[in-house]
Amino acid sequence: MTKFAYKNNRKKPPYKSILSYFFFGLMFTWLLVSIYFEVSPIDILKKGVVSIGSVGTTKTIESLELELLKKDSIIIALEKQLNLSNTDGLKKAIVKVSSSTLNMRDKPSLASDIVIQIPVESEVDILFYDTETYYLEGKQGKWCKIKYAGQEGWVWGNFLLVTQ
User: Fold this and answer.
1) Exposed, middle or buried: residue 163 (CB in 10 Å: 0-12, 13-18, 19+)?
2) 158, 97 Cβ separation under 8 angstroms
């Protein structure tokens, strides 16, 4: 009987406990890495630990500067095209309001400063319309950037009668 009891009291081989600690540590590290880089653990398995820095949304300063330069060049090109189109084919309009003058403002807002007062029936050059649609006195409309007497400013587009 002592021989039988001895077999039951045998300790497990040490490699089994070492392997279980190793795999537990490996899984724990895997989860910590996924939390740190804000990436799912599956992505870490797919992409590997070597490319883990590229999995996240972090960008280098150089890549951001390059992206900004590309966008700036697009904006500059569009501004040049806008300036060319503004000088070539300006639309003409006539001021139509119930009062004797129309206020041309420095910004597309009733709260902005008045640049000049334009007399009724005056002809103005339309540069462009604002992209936003607003309501003034219950009527839908857009602000319009115009040129009158060598000055540029904004007027309510509903007060203009386009002639060209």
Assistant:
1) exposed
2) no
pLDDT at 9: 61
> What pairs with residue 139 in β-bridges?
136
Alpha-helix residue ranges (DSSP H) falling in the chain: 2-8, 14-36, 41-47, 52-55, 61-88
Q: If we measure between CA atoms, which residue out of 115, 86, 105 comes closest to residue 143?
A: 105
Q: Which residues pair with 143 in a beta bridge?
A: 156
Q: What is the pLDDT of residue 8?
A: 57
Distance of alpha carbon 21 from alpha carbon 18, whole angstroms: 5
Q: What number of other Cβ atoms are within 10 A of residue 39's Cβ? A: 17
What pLDDT, in 10s, does the model give residues 73-88? 898 888 877 766 555 5
Return d(Cα 164, Cα 161) in angstroms, integer. 9
**CB–CB of 155/102 below 8 Å?**
yes
With a CB cutoff of 8 Å and minimum separation 6, the contacts of 127 are 86, 90, 144, 145, 146, 147, 152
Nearest to 122 by CA among 107, 104, 106, 101: 101
pTM for the full model?
0.47
Instruction: Select from 156, 159, 124 the least CA-distant residue to 142.
Output: 156
